Amino acid sequence: EAQVTQNPRYLITVTGKKLTVTCSQNMNHEYMSWYRQDPGLGLRQIYYSMNVEVTDKGDVPEGYKVSRKEKRNFPLILESPSPNQTSLYFCASSLSSGGHYGYTFGSGTRLTVV
Amino acid sequence: ELKVEQNPLFLSMQEGKNYTIYCNYSTTSDRLYWYRQDPGKSLESLFVLLSNGAVKQEGRLMASLDTKARLSTLHITAAVHDLSATYFCFLVSNSGYALNFGKGTSLLVTP
C-alpha cells in the first residue's frame, strides 16, 4: 500500500531532550516536507526537501533540523525541544515538487514537551 | 509571500442544506488543493485543481478554481453528517516548493 509512515504517533518528552520523528514513504517520491499544526494557526511548513541531500527552510524552521540521506526517509530532528514545540506534526510527500498529482500525508505525530 | 484565506472558519449547517466554502489567495498560483481532515486523523486529498476554470466534483462536493479572481470554492450540496470534518485549501508557491495553507473550515452537519 502506498503510504507515508510517521513514527511515533504520540510522544511526551522533557525540555532539552533530543528527539527524532521519522518519516518514510514507499512511493519513490522526490518531494517531502514537514508541517506543524496548531489550533488557530492551521498548518505551517517547517522544512522541505526536493530530493536526496537537497533541503530548505519553510516558514517556521527555528528549533528543527532535517536530513535527506535516502529518497524514502526524511526525519525531523529536535535537538533541544521546548514547550512551544508542542504540536501535531505531519510529514507529506509528492511525486515531484510541482505537486501535480497531489500530496500524501502521514498519520501525524502528536508531540508534547513538558 | 503567498497568503491563503479561508472563510468561514466555522460552519454549522443542517443536513440537506447547501453551502459554499471560500478560499482566497494573494498571489498568482495555478495549483490549488482541497483536503479533508477528520478529528485526530491525517489529511485526505479531495481535489487537485491545476488550471483556471477547473471544476471537479465528487459526490456532494464540487470544487472550482478562478485564477483571475484568485478564488477557489468548495460547494456542498445536500449536506449529510458524514461530511462533518475540517476542510483545508492550500496552494503551492510559484517556486513549486512551499505549501501555503488556509486555516481550515471546521464543518459540522447536524440533523
- How many helical stretches of chain A? 0
Q: Summarize model confidence as the mean pLDDT of chain B.
A: 92
Q: Would you count the extended β strands of chain B for me? A: 11
Largest sheet of chain B: 6 strands, mixed
- Helical segment count of chain B: 0
Proportion in helices of chain B: under 10%
Bulk shape of chain B: globular
Indicate the percent of residues in helices of chain A.
under 10%
Class inferred from helices and paired strands of chain A: mainly beta
Oligomeric state, counting identical vs distinct chains: heterodimer
Task: Extract low-pLDDT stretches of chain A.
Answer: none
- The ordered H/E elements of chain B are EEEEEEEEEEE
Round the Cα radius of gyration of chain A to an integer and report it: 13 Å
Intertermini distance of chain A: 36 Å
